[in-house]
Amino acid sequence: MYFRFAHPDFLYALLAFPALIFIYLVTVRLRRRALKRFGNLSLISQLMPDVSAAKAHMKFIFVLLALVFLIFAIAGPQFGSRLKEVKRQGIEIILALDVSNSMMAEDIQPNRLERAKQAISTLIDRLENDKIGLIVFAGDAYTQIPITTDYSSAKMFLSNINTNIVSRQGTAIGSAIDLASKSFSPSTEASKVIVIISDGENHEGNAIEAARSAAEKGIKIFTIGMGSTKGSPIPAGMNIMEKDFRRDREGNVIMTKLNVAMLNEIAQTGNGKYYGATSSRVGLNDLFEKLNKLDKEEIDTRVYSEYEEQFPYLIWIALGFLFAEFFIIEKKGRLLRNFKPFEVKI
Questions:
Q1: Rounded (5°) CA angle 161-234-172
Q2: Could you give the residue range(s) of every CATH 3.40.50.410 domain in the chain?
Q3: pTM assigned to the model
Q4: Are 256 and 231 in contact (CB under 8 A)?
Q5: Longest CA pairwise span in the chain (Å)
Q6: What are the two backbone dihedrals, phi and then psi, of residue 195, each rounded to the nearest 5 degrees?
Q7: Residue 210: other Cβ atoms inside 10 A
Q8: What letter would DSSP give residue 342?
Q9: DSSP three-state, residue 36
């Protein structure tokens, strides 16, 4: 049998009880001192035969006990009955997010990168037992979040991603696929998925070869294309008069276009599928349905103790003391009023 408090911090309230007792004793002493001003206490007590100091003390003790039990109830006492083993089944997903400068284009509002981050956050919210990891890439690829089930931490790291996180520019999709392939848990038989979120522009080298190598290991690759095929300028900061854009050496505004053909070929080679994003949708619903159809295997086992709440009993005890205190009258009853064992009759 295991015992614990669900909210032990509330027990610190018990530290206030010595102060309450001290205040009560000081109040009693001040009351006695005030009565002494009118004369001898023994004579005054005969003038007030119905007043019972013992009942006043009892009322205070009952209120104090009610508060003690109430604090223990708020702290949430629980008894654990047995240990329970919970097996989690899911898949492993590694998201590879493009953070090159072209992802700042605003053909998808507010821009490609921010819309991609919003889509990833929505995807994380929909996951339950799956493991997730995050890789960022531009000219190089880096692990931002190792494979984990800690969705809160994943969203926290996601919020801090920007185009300055990778120093070398480019679109090294092949490097991102290679790094992702090495980042899955080696011992699990769960389905492994890489989701590449990029505009696919200025890709470097061996993306198709990397996708083929991943597919041979049983890893599926899905791609999400961010941007439009019409092209869009890349913001380069705010000028005094108007927004400025990135330019080439001749001074011409650089236009970035979504490379649908490349992203589609990567997905097909990786036995996955390509999804195109717009300002209103990023293809997440279709992708999530596809991921849910993949084979799920046991990826984690956790042991929990089943605890039963005990606070209702303590609340009833606290109410019992308050109920008793309410009906205690500070005046002496008829029997106590006439009970004077030390009085000498002449």
A1: 55
A2: 87-301
A3: 0.63
A4: yes
A5: 126
A6: -115, 115
A7: 25
A8: T
A9: helix
Segment holding 277, helix H or strand E: none
The Cα 188–Cα 208 span in angstroms is 26
CA 287 to centroid of chain Cα atoms = 25
CA distances from 31 to 34, 35, 54, 58, 290 (A): 5, 6, 14, 17, 79
- CA 41 to mean position of chain CA atoms: 63
**Residue 77: which residues within 8 A CB-CB, separation 6 or more?**
3, 4, 5, 6, 309, 310, 311, 314
Q: What is the pLDDT of residues 163-215, one digit of tens each?
A: 999 888 888 999 999 999 999 988 778 899 999 999 998 666 689 999 999 99
Q: Which two tokens stand for residue 76?
A: 């949430």
CB 10 within 8 A of CB 75: yes
Of 306, 294, 289, 303, residue with least CA distance to 89 = 294
In the DSSP assignment, the letter for residue 343 is: P
What is the DSSP secondary structure assignment for residue 149, as one 8-state letter?
A: S
Radius of gyration of the chain (CA): 36
Report the SS3 class of residue 233: strand
- The number of angstroms, rounded, from the C-alpha of 192 to the middle of its chain's C-alpha atoms is 25
C-alpha to C-alpha distance for 75 and 83, rounded to whole angstroms: 22
Could you confirm whether domain 87-301 is CATH 3.20.20.140?
A: no
CA distances from 62 to 171, 318, 326, 332, 333 (A): 74, 9, 10, 18, 19
Residue 167 CA to residue 165 CA, distance in Å, equals 6
Q: Which of 55, 31, 35 is nearest to 45 (CA)?
A: 35
Which pLDDT tens digit goes with each residue over 126-147? Answer: 888 899 999 999 999 999 999 9
Say if residues 232 and 203 touch (Cβ distance below 8 Å): no
User: Of 77-86, 151-160, 200-209, where does the model show the most confidence?
Assistant: 151-160
60 vs 52: CA distance, rounded Å: 13
Q: 175: buried, middle or exposed (CB in 10 Å: 19+, 13-18, 0-12)?
A: buried
Average pLDDT over residues 61-88: 82
Question: Where would I find the H helices in 14-150?
Answer: 17-36, 41-47, 53-74, 112-126
